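Researcher: Please predict.
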Amino acid sequence: MGLAQIKMPQLGESVTEGTVDKWLKREGDFVKRDEPLVEVVTDKVNAEIPSPFEGKLVKISASEGETVRVGAVIGQIETGPASTSTTPAGPAAGTAQAEKPAARAGGQAPAPAPAPTADGGSEPARLSPAVRKLAAEHGIDPSSLRGSGMGGRVTRDDILGAVGSGQTASASAPTAPSTSRVDGTREEVVKLSVMRRSIAEHMVRSLATSPHAWTLQEIDVTNLVRYRESEKDNFKSRHGVSLTYLPFVVQIVCDALKQYPWLNSTWTDEGVVLKRYINMGIAVSIPDGLIVPVLKDADTLGFTDMVGTLNDLVERARNKKLKTEDVQGGTFTLNNTGATGSVASQPIINQPQAAILTTESIVKRPVVINDAIAVRHMMNMCLSFDHRIVDGMMAGQFLSSIKKRLEEWTPGSIRL
């Protein structure tokens, strides 16, 4: 028998911490290897993390709603004699060292379960550094709150609930419920989900990190629209998946990125890192937020393989079945805001990338061609870029390259 550690995985290239959203198993439960164990949320993904071991979940070190650094221990599984671990489990179970908590975010050890007091009650569970800092910023006394986390631990949502209800450090009432009324029936405060808060923090950090600039061009995609309309039924009958505009655009954007590699780069203090490979992030909207699975080596995929891979990624993203590697290593992001009816937008860069591109709604409207008016299928494309890396001239040339490829598109343009 031995103890194997469950650690917070890195769900994204620039991700340094994750939040435990929901434990799918409880202490004492038997867990099979690769069985979903815990839901983790970062600013890039909301994913179910499978158990890397088989055995009994003997300790949960990070409670629901708690944010911990990548690599920090969030639980322990007691493995049987027949079970083997690819990660050293440390000293044998039963020794004092084996039970010693691993270091966590900010150098803090994992909080133990509440210790019994003389009067039969329990002491408040220890706070994570992030919760302690948040409480101090808002003047909240954590000991006055009734924690909603495991073992009565006070979580970040408990602190924010107290702030929203106007509670001060001297108050002793419990936190507000997840949904509370303000001014009777005219206003309502809905507690932020872990994913929504993570997205908000990432968006603020992105704007603070890089100076954003953006540009827009309108594109005549009539040739592409006609081809898709004529081929979509045959394609689905042959391959079993729907033919959307996305794979066409991905191939063309990959070609443009090869021509303008600075759009496929990352800023560092030592210099700009040009990526000689293209991992295309595809923004996928889900009910409680947005996640960005990554199409690896997109520039090397044939069209049919790309369609199948894209459909698989999007489907698993919407069903929270993405794996850790599915959200790592993106070099450029594409977002289809046109799916919501948008005709123009200014996207925020997915750090640490240099740019993000949106495809807007395709609409039929009259345009002037050779001094004559014709009805064409028109689409706007909007590019946000890191102005430290890319100047307006290069951004315009990059977008013009995509425009030319789309407007001159023919079936022979497909890279099989």
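Model: The chain has a mean pLDDT of 82.
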